[in-house]
User: What shape does this take?
Amino acid sequence: MTRKKLNRSFAVTFLLFLLLAIFGAFMALPLIYTINHAFKPLDEIFLFPPKFFVRNPTLNNFYDLINLMGNSWVPFSRYITNTVIISVVGTLGHVLFASAAAYPLAKYSFPGSKAIFNIVVLSLMFSPHVTAIPNYMIMSRVGWIDTHSSIIIPAWAFPLGLFLMKQFMEQIPSALLEAAKIDGASEYRIYWQIVMPNVKPAWLTLIILRFPALWGSDGGSFIYSENLKTLNYALGQIVQGGIARAGVGAAVGLILMIVPIILFIISQSSVIETMASSGIKD
Amino acid sequence: MQTKRIENRTALSPMPQRAWKLPLLWKEIQRNKHYYFLMAPFMIIFFLFTVIPVVASMGISFTYFNMLEPPRFIGWQNYSRLFLNDDIFMIALRNTFFFAIITGPVSYIACFLFAWIINELPPKIRSFMTLVFYAPSISGNVFFIWQVIFSGDRYGLLNSLLLRLRIILEPIQWLKDEQYILGVIIIVQLWMSLGTSFLAFIAGLQNLDPTIIEAGAVDGIKNRWQELWYIVLPSMRPQLLFGAVMQITSSLAVADVSIALAGFPSVNYAGHTIVTHLMDYGTIRFEMGYASAIATVLFAIMMGTNIITQKLLRKIGG
Assistant: This one.
C-alpha cells in the first residue's frame, strides 16, 4: 500500500523510529543470544566475563545433546516424534473442525447460531487455567490420561481459531454459495469445495496461532510416561543441569523456536490478510 | 474494511421473525440440520473441555473433594477460607493484580504503538520488523534464556555487564531476591506479549482506507497525532476491542514465566499468582474443591475485567 505521507514532521519521525530500533533490539537480542549460545564451545560458555557473540562456532552442543539423550532410556528422537505428532495432528484437526463450525456461523442464521457464537466470544475472555481441574476429571473419565489425545483433542476446539475463521468467512460472497446450491451441491460439498479453498489465508492464521503452542507443549499434567513426553519437557530437564548444560539447553531452545519462526516467515502475508477481519464488532 | 464485507446472511436462509412456537422451531432445526452436523465435532469438544468445565468448576467449588472420596457439599466454606484464612492467596491476588495493571496496559499500548510505527515503513522492512516483534511470542519456552541473562552469579549476562561498568560491586540475585523477582517477571512477560493483538493491529492499519486519511488532511488534520486520534483509532475500533480481550486475558494468567524463572514456589511467594496458587492446590495437594474455588474467582476476575473494559472502550470515540 503506497500512501502519500501527510503532515509528518521529520523530528517526530526520527524519534519514533529510534524508539522502534531500541525496542526492536530488546525483542531480538535474547533470541540472537540463544542462537549464539547454541553454537558456543564449552570454554566460551564458562568464559568470564561472558561474551554475547560466539567466536569459534561449533556443533558440539548438538552432538552432546544426542549423546546425553542417547544414554538416557528414552532416545531424543522420541521426544521429537512426540512433539511432531502432537503439533501436526492437533493443528490439522483444529483447522478442519474450526472451519467446519465457522462456515454455518458465518453465512447463515439458524436457531441457536447467535447464542453459540456469543459463547465462543465469551470463552476468549478467560484462560484455559480456569477449566484445568474439571478437565482433568473429564480426561480421566474418558480414559485419555497419559495419551497424546489429552493434548491433541482439546486443541481441535480452540475458540480463538473459530472466531477468526468465522470473521474471515463472512467476506465470501453469498452469491457464490447460492449459485452452488442451485447447481445441486450439498452443504458438505459447498464447505469442502467452495468455502475451504476460499479461506486459504485463514488456514495459515489458524496454523500460526495453534502450532507454536502445541510445538512448545510440555505435556502438562496429563502425560506421565517418559516415552510420551515432548521436546519442551526434555528442554526443562536439560536446563535443570545448570550452567554446564546452558549450551545444550540453548541448542534445544533453538530447535524449539526455529520451527514456529520459519512457519511465520512463510505465512506472514496471509496471516495479516486474515487478521484484518479479526475485530469484535459492536 | 468494514465496507468490503458483504452482510448478506439473511438472504440465504430467511428465518421467520420469531420461531417461538415449538413445532415451528423444530421445523427450522430440521431444515438447517446440515449446519448442526458441520458444527458438531468442534462444538462437542468445545462444550466438553471448555463450557462444561466452567460450570462444573463452579459446582465443585462448593464441595470438599479430594478425588478419592465422593465430593461433599460444604457451602461457601471454600470461599470464606480463601478470602479470610489464606494469607498466601492474598499475596497471589496482590501479585496478579500488580502484574496485570502493569503488563496489561503497557503491552496493549506497545502492541498498538509499534504496529503504528511499523506501518509507516516500506513493505520489506515492515515484514522484517513485524517478525522481530512477533517472534518472541511464538518462540516456545525460549524465555529460559532470560535465566542465563538474569543468572545470580557473575556469569549472568546482566550481572557481568553491571560489574564491568562498576554500577554494582557484587552480583545481584535477580531471581532469588524478593525485591527484583516481580520486576524481572514483568520484563519477560512484556517481551513475550506482542502476540495476536499486535498482528491484528498491523492488519487493521494496513487495511485502513487511504482516502479517508487524505480527506482528513484536506479537512484540516494538522499532524500525525490528530490523524491518529480522529481517524486511525476510530476506524480500528473492532481490532482494538479484540486486542483488549487478548491482552487482558493473558496479563491475568501469568504463571509459566514465573515458574520458569522464579521457581515454584518462589522465594517467599514473591512470584506467586492466582494461577500458581491454583496449580498448588489442584495438582500437588489435590484439594479439588478449594482449587475450583480459586479457578472460579479467577474466572470472575477475568470476565469482569474484560466486560468492563469492553464497555469503556466502546464509549471512547463512540
